[in-house]
Amino acid sequence: MNQSVFDVHPVGRVESPLVDRDLAPRQGDEGAPNAWLVSEPAVRQGIANITVGSEVIVLTWLDRAQRDVLAVHPRGNENQPLTGVFSTRSPDRPNPIGLHTVQVLDIDDLRIRVRNLEALDGTPIVDVKPILEPLDQR
Amino acid sequence: MNQSVFDVHPVGRVESPLVDRDLAPRQGDEGAPNAWLVSEPAVRQGIANITVGSEVIVLTWLDRAQRDVLAVHPRGNENQPLTGVFSTRSPDRPNPIGLHTVQVLDIDDLRIRVRNLEALDGTPIVDVKPILEPLDQR
Q1: Would you state the pLDDT for residue A42?
Q2: Which helix (H) or strand (E) holds A47?
Q3: What is the pTM of this model?
Q4: How many Cβ atoms are within 10 Å of B133's Cβ, its own excluded?
């Protein structure tokens, strides 16, 4: 199969007290700190309707991940059998896109404060999406 | 802010009866057909632990989307006010990554049949992730 390659252009970056992957929580609900999503001025119009209190899905590019890894011991636990990365949330995977559901706490122009984000400081943001409403409310 | 660019290398493609964006459902639960996720042989080890019956999150690269769009009328309805794309699920957005939660129906080597996927035939697949288990079952 002949596959194309696509360019991801980050639309912002995470500002967080987390700087060390080994010390970061594995998921946002495992003790991750609050953080800022800092958008590029060029996408100002894209974030204009995000509201304080809403839950959003943040997609990041986990730029410190290893892309040549196809199987891992889940949660870094050697007692767990090697598992294909597409059945794990390991950051190490062919396209290291992080998926984070967070609540918006505050908005200051291009800076959006969110609760419990496990991404490291400086992690590029590639997309933000709303949670899907139930079918009858779309 | 000086941003890097990252390369997405698709790990597979969608095989689907859907070929026309204008006729495709807007979300998987709005009448989308079953489809196949066809993986590249190179990532065989990565999909080895996906099981029939499980729910997975598929990330696609919506290669027919427009990337220079920052605001849209939600659901293509001109009566709805222009809304920043990061508050919508529009495929048109700076990094057109599709997010699809689907159930696995069948697995045949590199081919994984899934229920209700709204991605068009040929859409590149960039990642597959498990649904996060509740905190006490990880």
Answers
A1: 97
A2: helix A44-47
A3: 0.95
A4: 9
- Nearest CA-CA distance, residue B71 and chain A, Å: 6
Across the interface, whether the CB atoms of A99 and B129 are under 8 A apart is answered yes
Q: Which letter does DSSP use for residue A43 in this model?
A: G
Closest-CA residue of chain B to A124 = B3
Residue B96: closest C-alpha in chain A: A127
Give the pLDDT confidence score for residue A3 in this predicted structure.
Answer: 64
* Residue the block writes with tokens 């908005």: A107
Facing B97 at nearest CB: one of A45, A59, A135: A59
**What pLDDT sits at residue A137?**
79
Q: How many residues does chain B have?
A: 138
Q: Which residues is A135 bridged to in the sheet?
A: none
Task: Using the predicted structure, report yes or no on whether residue B108 has a pLDDT greater than 90.
Answer: yes
In B, minimum Cα distance to A70 occurs at B46
CB contact under 8 A, B93 and A127: yes
Minimum mean pLDDT among A110-119, A127-136, B5-14: which range?
Answer: A127-136
In sequence order, what are the beta bridge partners of A71?
A84
Provide the H-helix boundaries in chain B: 44-47
Work out the mean pLDDT of chain B and round it to a whole number: 94
Report the C-alpha dihedral over residues A36, A41, A45, A47, rounded to 10 degrees.
-10
Number of A/B CB contacts below 8 angstroms equals 164
Rounded to whole angstroms, the Cα distance separating A37 from A111 reads 6
